[in-house]
Specification:
The structure holds 2 protein chains of 2 kinds. By secondary structure, chain A is α/β, with parallel strands linked by helices. Chain A has 2 domains: about 5-80 and about 155-325, no CATH class; about 360-489, no CATH class. Chain A has 18 helices and 10 strands. In chain A, the strands form 3 sheets. Chain A has a 5-stranded parallel beta sheet with strand order 2-5-8-1-9. In chain A, strands 3-4 form a two-stranded antiparallel ribbon. In chain A, strands 6-7 form a two-stranded antiparallel sheet. In chain A, a hairpin with a 5-residue loop joins β3 and β4. The longest helix of chain A is centred in the middle third of the chain and has 40 residues, at about 220-260. The radius of gyration of chain A is 28 Å and the shape is elongated. By secondary structure, chain B is an alpha+beta fold. Chain B has one domain (about 45-190). Chain B has helices at about 35-40, 70, 85-100, 125-135, 180-190; strands at about 20-25, 45-55, 105-110, 120, 135, 140, 155, 165-175. In chain B, strands 2, 3, 4, 5, 6, 7 and 8 form a 7-stranded mixed beta sheet that branches. The N and C termini of chain B lie far apart (about 65 Å). Mean pLDDT of chain B is about 80; it is low at about 1-5 and about 195-203. Classes of the chains: A alpha/beta, B alpha+beta. Chains A and B meet through α15, β10, α16 and α17 of A and β1 and β3 of B.
Chain lengths: ~500, ~200
């Protein structure tokens, strides 16, 4: 299983494309194009996965990007009984109808054409502009297909749309009225897709978008969509059986890598991502038997993150890097030493394993060392650079990486002169006094000289921002030195 | 906007006194002269400044240093080799001299404008060539294949400078455990006459 997980394409760092340049083969059916919509082909597996699994779907995009049109055309094509609510304007009475006592004295709701009873699909537009009390009332519809505690047995599909929320920054393109969703609400939308920007379309596609009103949906679109949903639903158990364990491993590693980048996935979100990946792969397989699961994983990762809706700035390039790394780690065989190295989260421990491994290419060692140098704390990375330099292991690194190691080594090996005037008893003065206390307590040994060089260098470059940093750096330096004492080159 | 201060506050308008922080490393103080610098560099981390200067009046001077033939005259003045053979010979000389130097496998390359205090200067062509030809960026590697490119581009000494016009090669290497004695003996021999060796403070 692990072998089959190996990506089809090389994922060497130098050749990594940016997210914008990734081009997945278009689905052969052009299901969305058949609805008369141009340039949305990339959304097809996401929408199809949502329809097949009946998981809530949230579309995020600027005004006029086709969010509502897409969902309306799908609902019409599939012949669904559906309701379209504007969350900024809707009253709760619009949703449930008017309460009236029945003959038995029980309260019942009088249905109206707009009430939610009997709907098979609900589309909540402008969900980010809803008042908090309205959001709270919409929450159970999205979450558990209930309203006022009453089940909605016919309801299959829950869709919502919103403009990108305004954040704390002064982004002129932000929508001031669009507020970030509460993370609990955002987390209920298993799939969260950003609408494609029509400015990135080809010239012919842009012109087709401009003339879109002249295009009518293909009458056969509904049947094709229904067939695709049925085929996806049929394939999904097979995908889960074949890929379930590998997908779980990939999601676990991806979640850990994202956590390192300060993006925490809840356990529920991790489960949703795994479910989305399987569903998206089934959706892609329903059109193309050769579809690769690695591409499906990227599509799932890209469309399963709850951060954008919650107003958190999320770098897609970072996600791509995490995805590639997670995929690489998940693809390693259990007995492959690289698997153990890549699975190790502690950057220093990872370098130790890499140095001890036989047959590891120097290029991979370079990558691991570079990651460790940028990821390890001050003190730890200095001890790492010192060891690499003085053991000669630096010779195995690329010129650029070796240079980076040498620069860090300089901090600890060379005497750093400090000459500075500071405010008496100010923060820098207090930090320096702490440095003096620590160094004054040591006899003038080579080890003490290195510690002095390190602290003076970090002080000069303003990397000691508080008095307690002095002890923290020294502790990291000494502990990491100890860890490398037993490593043989 | 105009700030108005009451006369009673004017006495408080001066600068607060500043605290001076001066640090030259553990157990290191200001160094008076080259002689002291050499003594300090015997047992403790120090920079070796390899500096090779050729003035126009020097018989070895060439207008164009972009050839191995010209460079080889600095280590083998009477050679009559062509360019290809001179290149081979120069590379071989660098490798032979590298093996004779008891240097660690890696050394840190320094930055010329700074690091003046713990710097011992040595004018020795073969050693300067070894230092330059095996360095890239911040790293000198003993086992690196010599690159002649850094040797082909010496710095020009300004025409107005005294005592000479000419070219100069510089390289700065950090020896973490002190500069080897063989090099310090050479550096000592190059000090101006009249200098008396002092006892080694490190022992």
């Amino acid at each position: 299983m692990a072998n089959a997980l190996a990506p089809k394409k090389a994922v060497g760092k130098a050749s990594q494309p940016s997210p914008e340049t990734i081009e997945l083969p278009p689905a052969r059916r052009d299901l969305i194009a058949r609805l008369g919509l141009i340039g949305f082909g990339a959304l097809e597996p996401v929408v199809l996965a949502s329809l097949a699994t009946q998981c809530p779907l949230l579309l995020i995009g600027p005004h006029g990007s086709g969010k509502s049109l897409l969902l309306e055309r799908i609902a019409v094509a599939l012949g669904l009984r559906w309701r379209h609510y504007n969350a900024a304007l809707v009253n709760f009475d619009d949703l449930v109808g008017y309460p009236l006592p029945d003959a038995g004295g029980q309260l019942r709701f009088v249905e109206t054409p707009a009430s939610v009873w009997g709907a098979q699909a609900v589309f909540i537009d402008e969900i980010s502009r809803a008042r908090l009390d309205v959001q709270n009332r919409l929450f159970p519809i999205v979450h558990e297909r209930r309203v006022q505690g009453i089940p909605l047995p016919d309801l299959k599909h829950r869709w919502a749309a919103m403009n990108p929320p305004s954040g704390d920054d002064e982004d002129s393109s932000a929508y001031l009225g669009s507020q970030p969703l509460d993370i609990a609400l955002s987390d209920r939308f298993a799939l969260q897709a950003s609408m494609p920007d029509w400015r990135t379309f080809s010239e012919s596609q842009q012109e087709a978008v401009i003339r879109a009103q002249e295009v009518t949906p293909d009458p056969a679109a509904g049947a094709l969509w229904a067939a695709a949903i049925a085929r996806t639903t049929e394939l999904l158990p097979m995908v889960q059986a074949q890929w379930g364990a590998s997908i779980a491993r990939y999601v676990r590693i991806l979640a850990a890598l994202l956590a390192e980048a300060s993006f925490q996935l809840s356990a529920r979100r991790a489960g949703m991502l795994a479910g989305n990946l399987a569903a998206i792969h089934a959706a892609r397989l329903s059109a193309d038997a050769e579809a690769g699961v690695d591409d499906s994983a990227w599509i799932a990762a890209l469309n399963s993150m709850p951060f954008a809706a919650a107003g958190q700035v999320f770098d897609t390039s970072r996600l791509l890097a995490c995805h590639r790394e997670a995929w690489r780690q998940a693809a390693a065989k259990a007995d492959d030493p690289r698997g153990r190295i890549l699975a190790e989260r502690d950057p220093i421990a990872r370098v130790r394993l890499a140095l001890a491994a036989t047959g590891l290419p120097d290029g991979e060692l370079t990558t691991i060392v570079t990651d460790a140098l940028s990821g390890a704390a001050d003190g730890a990375r200095h001890a790492l650079a010192e060891w690499l330099f003085e053991s000669g292991a630096i010779a195995r690194l690329s010129v650029v990486a070796a240079d980076a190691v040498a620069e860090v080594y300089r901090d600890v090996a060379c005497v750093q002169e400090v000459s500075e005037q500071v405010a008496p008893n100010g923060l820098r003065h207090r930090i320096w006094r702490t440095v003096q206390q620590r160094l004054g307590a040591e006899p003038a040994t080579p080890m003490a000289e290195r510690q002095g060089n390190l602290l003076a260098s970090l002080f000069s470059s303003n990397r000691l921002s508080a008095e307690e940093d002095v002890d923290r750096v020294l502790r990291c330096y000494v502990q990491t030195q100890e860890r490398f004492k037993t490593v043989a080159v | 906007m105009k700030a108005e201060h009451s006369p009673s506050l004017l006495h408080n308008s001066g600068y607060a006194p500043r605290a001076n922080i001066v640090w030259r490393g553990i157990g290191r103080g200001p160094i008076a002269d080259d002689a002291e610098r050499i003594e300090v560099a015997r047992g403790r981390g120090a920079w070796l400044h390899l500096c090779l200067s050729i003035g126009q009046a020097d018989g070895r001077y060439h207008r164009d240093w972009n050839t191995a033939t010209a460079l080889l005259t600095l280590v083998e003045p009477d050679h009559r080799l062509g360019e290809k053979a001179a290149t081979r010979c120069l590379v071989e000389r660098i490798e032979v001299h590298t093996r004779q130097l008891d240097w660690p496998p890696c050394l840190l390359v320094g930055d010329m404008p700074r690091d003046r205090q713990q710097r011992v200067t040595l004018d020795h062509a073969p050693t300067a060539f070894v230092a330059l030809a095996k360095s890239t960026g911040s790293l000198w590697l003993r086992n690196r294949q010599p690159l002649l490119a850094p040797l082909h581009a010496p710095k020009l000494i300004e025409p107005s400078s005294t005592p000479m016009r000419g070219v100069r090669w510089d390289q700065l290497l950090w020896f973490p455990d002190g500069i080897p004695n063989t090099l310090l003996e050479l550096a000592t021999a190059q000090l101006p006459p009249g200098w008396q060796r002092r006892p080694n403070p490190i022992g």
